[in-house]
Every structure is written in C-alpha cells, then in structure tokens.
Amino acid sequence: MLAMEHHMIELEEKEDVQPLCPHCSEPLERIWYRKLRGLLGCRFVYFCSICRKSLGVSHRKGFWMG
Asked: Total structural domains in the chain?
C-alpha cells in the first residue's frame, strides 16, 4: 500500500469576495448569534440574518474556562 502524503490546507484572507449563505444563497453581510446555556458551560449558535437558518455551533467551553 502506498503511503499518502498529507498537506495542510492553505488559509488566505479575501476581502474582495462575499461569502454566501449555504441555505438561501444570499451574501452574508451580517451573521447573528445566540448564546446557548447548559450545565457544563455555554455555546453559541450562529445563523444567517436573512433566512435565520443555522450556520454552525461553537465548541463547548466548560465552566472552568469562562
């Protein structure tokens, strides 16, 4: 079996390109968020300000991490 080489994905800042919402395909000019509380910490849900569909949820932070 051949060994596969793994390369890091390159990260590049782009100010001239507007990302699109994967749900409504509108340009993401503003992303809304809402805090989610739980027993062991808090998370945030991020959503499109146009269609209000979820874009993602932050990783959980335990109560000892703030």
From this structure: 1
